[in-house]
Amino acid sequence: MSNYFYILWIPLLPLATFVILGLFGRKYLSAIAGLLGTASLFSSTVLSFVAANQYFFVDGKVNGVFQKIVAFKFTWLEFSPNVSIDLGMIIDPISVMMLVVVTSVSLMVHVFSLGYMKGEERFATYYAFLSLFTFSMLGLILSSNIFQVYMFWELVGVSSFLLISYYFNKPSAVAASKKAFIVTRFADLGFLIGILILGFYGGTLDIGLLIERFTSVNSAQYISITGASFLGASMLTWGLTLLFIGGAGKSAMFPLHIWLPDAMEGPTPVSALIHAATMVVAGVYLVARMFPIFSMDEAALHIVTYVGAASALFAAVIACTQTDIKRVLAYSTMSQIGYMMFALGISKNGGEQGLGYMASMFHLFTHAFFKSLLFLGAGAVIHMVHSNEMKDMGGLRKLMPITHIAFLIACLAIAGIPPFAGFFSKEEILTAAFHENKIIYGIALFTAALTSFYMFRLYFNIFWSKEAPAANHAQADHGQEAHASHGEGPWVMKLPLLILAACAVGVGFVPFSQLVTSDGKALETHIDIVFSIAPVVLSVLAILLAARFYKNQNGRSDKMAAAFGGLYTAAYKKFYVDEVYIFITKKIVFPFIGQPIAWADRNIVDGFMLLLAKITAKISESIKGLQSGKVQNYALYFFGGVAALSILFIYIWK
Amino acid sequence: MNMQEIPLTQILFVSTALFFIGMYGLFTRRNLITMLMSIELMLNSVNINFIAFNKYLFPDKLDGLFFTLFIITIAAAEAAVAIAIIINLYRSHNSIDVEDATEMKY
Amino acid sequence: MNISSILFYAISALILGAGILAVTSVKIFRAAIWLLFSLVGIAALYFWMQVEFIAAIQIVVYVGGIVVLIIFSIFLTQNSGKEMVKPAIGKVIFSALAALLGTAFVYNLIVHYEGFKYISAKPFNSNVEEIGTQMLSTTSYGFILPFEAVSMLLLAAMVGCIVIAMRPNNEVETNTINKTENN
Fold first, then answer.
1. What CA–CA distance (Å, rounded) separates A460 from A66?
2. What was the pLDDT predicted at A194?
3. Inter-chain CB proximity B59 and C120 less than 8 Å
4. Residues of B in contact with C42 (CB under 8 A)
5. Which pLDDT does position A108 carry in this prediction?
6. pLDDT, position A399
7. Of A435, B64, C59, C64, which is most buried by a Cβ count within 10 Å?
8. What letter would DSSP give residue A239?
């Protein structure tokens, strides 16, 4: 049980906040709802920092290896002595790291929302949902039983649904939330089947036991799962692939990515929290958690790698053409998660070859900070301009100085310019890719260049290209109010930007390879200057290209778009993936699968029940004449019965 | 003195036949008062039974006799109540035909 | 074949014949009178069986009370001269068959029962003094409790008859009187 038991409070505090705000917030607590949510999350953040300090620097290490500690275990539902759904809490390097990430980003979002969502009628409900999401994500991170992961997985999906459709009066928001929920739910079917396969062959649902049983080549479970095969692939491959499909749905990998751009209908702080830093990395986290098992199966790792790389490239190309700033950031998220996925895919378990794992987790860590900073900055911009489209922005650097600097720092970080955080993590990924698979390295390099290009396209379009839509524009909208700082938002909106900018700068210097690796032992890494010149140079070139096109308004970008012609149109239309989905569902699934099943349900199943009822009614109609109301008939029946019984008893049944 | 000549079974035959005659009347008659008359016949057949058993099988006790006494009493009370009901029914239906009182029909 | 046997057969014939006529006669008054004859026949049978007390009670209560009551009710409820409706022929046949089969069945059982062959030799003392002592005694073979219960029953029956047969006008009148008094 150990002295890590206090970690249980980290998810429970947001849960308590959710319950209190959910039940009483709207009526009684709406004035202090935001402060209450923020305060409880602040305590969780402090606790997670204390836990991280204790684990990483005080007593997590035993003989130089970070231990996996099961701090808490409670058997909830026992199917058989071996298979049970426990509720447990596992403390190991990645879960502690994720605790820090989730709580800090969530805290920043809470503080930012105090300003952004001020004046909303359902303010308390918003904070209740945010707390629910934080609780679910924290529960997911700490789960020690794979079914518990699934439970929290679904809870996270529900919180995302609630938050995307926060503005439920907008039909587009409602449609987007339904799309998100249905797509992720569809992927979760794969996840569930994967859990069942692994649980069946492994004989347990506990993650630690599963890893133990499947990673030793001689164990009975490993032999049985690799021995059984289905359509040519071993059951281990099937189980892991299906598990990955669940992760791919939640992490918006191609082709289950369609929900992420639409999920931007939710309020921007929600996008910052859920669809940038925390929920969408749940898929990566799942693969990392089950990584020892993944590393036993080449085929599953290949699938992870190629899906990740394809998503990274695909999203980067689309992001170059989008005009809605939140959509650009959404595709950017998809691309970066693709990076994390293929970094995991090319990694092996243990030692030097576990570099990919460490790089992926490092990138997850840094990405959370600068992506949420990008989203919050975009939120500040949207708050001022009241529009999401790039054409309504331009030249805002004079009106929003702090946001400008923060946004610039985040863009530099994501482009991988030293000494910002993104440089270090991307560097590690590229190194791992170079050593393992040159093709993936090539794709990664090209995508890095594209990343810099579209991020700075975004930056220049927002802050430079035109002259500021003069200050009178902002004042005209808000008439009498002479808010000196209205343009940029109150200090509660600036403070998180500043803190996150500081993190985006400093977090690269965390000695990550000493702390989080695939097998718990510290990994020696060094920055190879020669090697890292190539990506940095490419990024700088891309930035200059973007500056040339977008810094001032000129026709060069349009000529470029015309030159690409069909490719540009396809990318602008997001490569028609949504249209393909609509075609499949409307033309194939609905008429050939949905309608026959509905017909069978209505006519056969319901019909059978109705038939039973009709038969009963007919029988009762035919015998109701016996109750004729005539006493003599009743007397006759009585006599008949007595006679029959007496003959029966006296002569037949002695 | 008459017990040797007339065995018990012959008296029982009389009572059985009377009972089933009463039952025939109960099934056949449509007038409520004639149904009551049939019921009285059935009760009387039971009385004959009791007295016969008492006299032939258990002459040292008088149980059968007392039962008969009580049955006569109760039959009288029952006939009175039945007549009251018939009169009440006559008022609401204006007929005492048992086929006209079928409100308990389905 | 002594006189008592002939007497018995004659009385039985009267009982059964009058009974059959009572249930099949189409005129209601005639049916009532045939019932009367049947009941008198049964009283004669009791006299023949030397239970005179019961015979007397039979005549007083049944013939003098119940048959009179039946005749009164015939007067109260219908024209006694009309002929009654005959029942459906199917019902007649079915009931006749049921009755005959029932008689045969029960008589068969009676004839084959061993217990009825034994006739006890003890004398049958049924004089009124004995009856009275036993009815009101509280020791064994005493019938005081049923006696009291039957008296309660008779009281209840009397009250019930009056209530059931009461004219509804009285109730309506009392209700309206009550209402006007309250207003």
1. 44
2. 92
3. yes
4. 44, 47-48
5. 92
6. 82
7. B64
8. H
Q: Quick check: C12 pLDDT over 90?
A: yes
A120, containing H or E segment: none
Partners of chain C (3+ Cβ pairs below 8 A): A, B
**What six digits make up the tokens of B52?**
């016969």
CB C96 within 8 A of CB B21: no
Distance from CA of B105 to the nearest CA of C (A): 19
User: How many inter-chain contacts (A to C, CB under 8 Å) are there?
Assistant: 14
B99 vs B69, which has greater pLDDT? B69
**pLDDT value of residue C174:** 52
Mutate one of A628, A630, A639, A642 to test the C interface: name it (highest C CB count within 10 A): A639
> Which pLDDT belongs to residue A281?
87
Pairing of strands A229-230, A65-66: unpaired
Nearest 10 degrees: Cα torsion A56, A60, A65, A66: -70
Give the C-alpha separation, B61 to A301, whole Å.
Answer: 105
pLDDT digit string, tens, across residues A77-102: 887 777 778 888 888 888 888 999 99
Nearest in space to C107 (alpha carbons), one of A388, A374, B9, A566:
B9
What is the rounded CA–CA span in Å between residue A651 and residue A211? 76
CA distance A336 to A314: 11
DSSP assignment string, chain C: --HHHHHHHHHHHHHHHHHHHHHH-SBHHHHHHHHHHHHHHHHHHHHHTT-HHHHHHIIIIIIIIIIHHHHHHHHHHS-TTSBPPPPPHHHHHHHHHHHHHHHHHHHHHHHT-GGGG----S-----HHHHHHHHH--STT--HHHHHHHHHHHHHHHHHHHHHHS-HHHHHHHHHHHHHHH-
Kindly identify which residue of chain B lies nearest to residue A634, measuring between CA atoms. Answer: B27
Per the CB < 8 A criterion, the answer to whether A340 and A297 are in contact is: no
Q: State how far residue A643 is from chain B, nearest Cα, in angstroms.
A: 13
Cα A636 to Cα A16, A345, C41, distances in angstroms: 73, 88, 29
Distance from CA of C73 to the nearest CA of A (A): 21
Q: Which residues of A touch C105 (CB under 8 A)?
A: 643, 646-647
Asked whether the predicted pLDDT for residue B75 surpasses 90, the reply is yes
Q: How far is C43 from chain A (nearest CA, A)?
A: 29
Task: Pick out chain A residues at pLDDT < 50.
Answer: 1, 472-485
Between CA A567 and CA A652 the distance in angstroms is 95
Residues A596-649 pLDDT 10s: 999 999 999 899 999 999 999 999 999 988 888 888 888 889 998 998 999 898
A74 with A88: CB under 8 angstroms? yes
**Which one of A627, A631, A632 has the shortest CB-CB distance to B106?**
A627
Confidence of residue B6 (pLDDT cuts 50, 70, 90): confident
Query: Rounded to an integer, what distance in angstroms lies between the CA atom of residue A381 and that of residue A383?
Result: 5
Q: What are A74's strand-pairing partners?
A: A87
> What single string gives the DSSP state of each residue in C95-147?
HHHHHHHHHHHHHHHHHT-GGGG----S-----HHHHHHHHH--STT--HHHH
The length of chain C in residues reads 183
CA A548 from chain centre, in angstroms, equals 35
Angle formed by the axes of helices A529-550 and A438-463, nearest 10°? 40
pLDDT value, residue B50: 95
Q: What is the residue-averaged pLDDT of chain C?
A: 86
| Closest residue, chain A, to B102 (C-alpha) | A629
What's the mean pLDDT in C55-59?
Answer: 94
Q: Which helix (H) or strand (E) element contains residue A343? A: helix A325-345
| pLDDT of C178 strictly over 70 | no
* Radius of gyration of chain B from its Cα atoms, rounded to whole angstroms: 18
Three-state SS for A256-281 is CCCHHHHHHHCCHHHHHHHHHHHHHH
Tokens of A443: 């794709």
